[in-house]
Design a protein that fits this description.
8-stranded parallel β-sheet, Rossmann fold, 2 domains, alpha/beta, 22 helices, about 600 residues, TIM Barrel, globular
């Protein structure tokens, strides 16, 4: 038997890109190729509709993890303000499948465990075997003190793989101020880290993270560049504190955010490995990047929070497929309040399904060889390296933060995001797309944070405070949720009347559009003909039909609705040449794809007194 494999396309001449473009341009009928088929990520590379092998630079393949059954560190975030309750959550997570935990420390009890000393931290870690379950910290400027606390608690386990995660630069960027010079906080963290590393050789010391950029609305390029600049800053600090540069880079963990854009996330994590390899090589050493991926808080919504499960699953998938070493997924109710036991179980189980049922860790590099993802990885890495060089040319990350260089770029990207959401170019399922007016509340916890707050140790260091424009976290859906909050506060939900002309084929598309639009702000709608408006009890009407029927009888229908008592009248669709006549007939405004929904719905809410 002849086992020769004959390619199916062997008899065809491979088409050139020029030939393909010629066919595409005919299909577009004169529309510009760049506008119709090329999209651009925020602060990122252009995304082409087609990639070929000659456009691709092959990225290094990440080796398979040693344990194919547990290919990454499934980490959960513990932030209950009560240390005892935090301990219950810690033990439940570890028993329920988590491999490690991230303890958020905040003596004020606003954003984490109210721990002010070693004893408080001991309560949260009671029963945890620190040599078996890695414990990571998130303590802001309290990082050096908290590291000493956990170091004292782990004395019986010198091989404990602690993740101290000291990161004063992210705290400065987020808050806009440091109590004393930020340089002193970095020196303090490095000094404590070097000292503890002698007792705990497996401990990682510093978290070089770009997530603060992401959460403030920045782009992937800026996030990668800040991550890299932070890594260089911390490696230098550890080196000055007495640690060799090779070891210093090996004590860093890179931190990145992952959201629902799984292709970009996947390429971003791969690009981070390339960038770290290039940075360490430039410093005369070689280290493999260790990456912690945390799900984006920016993408979470308060309304229809069940959709957050889909967003978080996409984030977890991309982090795992991209090769993150540890992954933290938020609870789907985090935008509403402190998570219940049920929500925490869902956060664990999402990763367990991806790990143990989907077997994502059994492929070394799932994106390897995909022309699109290889090209996107390379583009992200190149542009992030150029941005990193800009930061270094400005004097390093501290100077770039205090001068506003980072904040200006983030603000620009955030403004682009907000404009795209306001015009529904970027849809948010459950918020701006398919909002659910009949959703029921989900369970969250309501601890008495003020009663749990304790007086923590001072984090002030001698010298003047460092200040910079704060990279304030935000959520993409917050502006639209504020509109709906105004309606939810009313005793009776407002309702608009969708006045239809013609058959269902004429009006269905626009009634669906109008219903969805007003539901964004929590406003209900009812359907009927103009003749039925008077009996509806509604004060606002929206005329819905086809362009041809608007031309035939739109003005007459508008006058009839006004005569029947419509105090406010909108027309669904672009008016075109009919705008003047429709306005004269009583149409007060027009709703169509591309309008600023925050502005339009704000006017509608004012009409209803919300």
């Amino acid at each position: 038997m002849d086992d020769t494999i004959i390619p199916l396309a062997a008899e065809f001449t491979p088409p050139s890109r020029a030939e393909w473009l010629e066919i595409v341009e005919k299909t577009l009928k004169g529309a510009p190729f760049e506008k119709r088929l090329v999209s651009k990520a925020y602060d990122g590379p252009a995304l082409q509709p087609l990639y070929t092998a000659d456009q691709t630079m092959r990225s290094p393949v990440r080796a398979l993890p040693g344990d194919l059954d547990r290919p990454w560190d499934l980490r959960t975030r513990i932030n209950h303000p009560d240390p005892s309750a935090a301990n219950d959550e810690t033990m439940a997570d570890l028993v329920g499948g988590a491999a490690s935990v991230l303890l958020c420390i905040d003596p004020s009890a606003k954003d984490g465990i109210a721990a002010a000393n070693e004893a408080d931290l001991a309560k949260a870690l009671d029963g945890v075997l620190l040599d078996l379950a890695p414990v990571a910290l998130d303590a802001g400027y309290l990082g050096p003190q908290a590291s000493d606390w956990i170091g004292a608690l782990a004395k019986g386990a010198p091989q404990a793989p602690l993740a101290l995660h000291m990161d004063p630069l992210s705290t400065l960027a987020r808050s806009g101020i440091s109590p004393g010079p930020i340089e002193s906080h970095i020196v303090s963290a490095a000094t404590v880290g070097v000292r503890l590393s002698k007792t705990y050789p497996k401990a990682s010391l510093m978290l070089a993270s770009g997530q603060v950029v992401h959460e403030a609305g920045g782009g992937d390029i800026e996030e990668l560049a800040v991550m890299l600049a932070s890594a260089l800053t911390y490696a230098k600090a550890l080196n000055r504190a007495g640690m060799g540069l090779d070891e210093a880079f090996g004590k860093l963990v890179l931190g990145l955010a992952v959201d629902g854009e799984y292709f970009v996330n996947l390429a971003k994590i791969r690009a981070a490995r390339l960038l770290f390899a290039k940075l360490t090589a430039a410093c005369g050493t070689e280290q493999v990047a260790v990456i912690e991926a945390r799900s984006s808080d920016r993408m979470l919504a308060r309304y229809d929070p069940w959709v957050n499960l889909l967003r978080l699953t996409a984030a977890g998938f991309s982090a795992a497929a991209g090769g993150a070493d540890s992954i933290i997924l938020a609870n789907f109710t985090d935008a509403i309040g402190l998570a219940s036991t049920f929500a925490r179980r869902q956060a664990r189980n999402m990763q367990l399904v991806l790990m143990e049922e989907s077997h994502l860790g059994r492929v070394a590099d799932p994106a390897g060889g995909a022309w699109f993802l290889e090209s996107l990885t390379d583009d992200l890495a190149r542009q992030a390296w150029a941005r990193f060089q800009t930061i270094e040319a400005a004097g390093g990350l501290i100077s770039a933060l205090t001068s506003g260089l980072i904040a200006d770029q983030v603000a620009k990207t955030r403004a682009e995001r907000e404009a795209a959401i306001a015009k529904r170019k970027d849809g948010l399922v459950g918020v701006s797309e398919f909002p659910n007016l009949k959703e029921t509340p989900v369970e969250v916890l309501h601890p008495d944070r003020a009663a749990l707050a304790v007086s923590g140790p001072s984090v002030r260091l001698p010298g003047p405070d460092t200040q910079c424009p704060a990279l304030v976290p935000y959520r993409a859906s917050a502006a639209l949720e504020t509109l709906r909050d105004r309606v939810e506060a009313l005793a009776v939900r407002p309702c608009v009347f969708l006045a239809t002309l013609g058959s269902a084929a004429d009006y269905t598309g626009r009634t669906g559009f109008a219903h969805n639009l007003f539901a964004i702000a929590g406003i209900d709608s009812q359907l009927g003909t103009p003749e039925q408006f008077a009996d509806s009890g509604a004060g606002m009407a929206i005329l819905c039909s086809s362009d041809s029927l608007y031309a035939e009888g739109g003005a007459d229908a508008a006058m009839a609705l006004k005569a029947a008592g419509a105090k406010q009248l909108y027309l669904a669709g672009r008016p075109g040449d009919l705008e003047a006549s429709l306005n004269a007939a009583g149409v007060d405004g027009f709703i169509f794809a591309g309008i600023d929904i925050t502005e339009t719905l704000g006017q509608v809410l004012a009409f209803f007194g919300a």
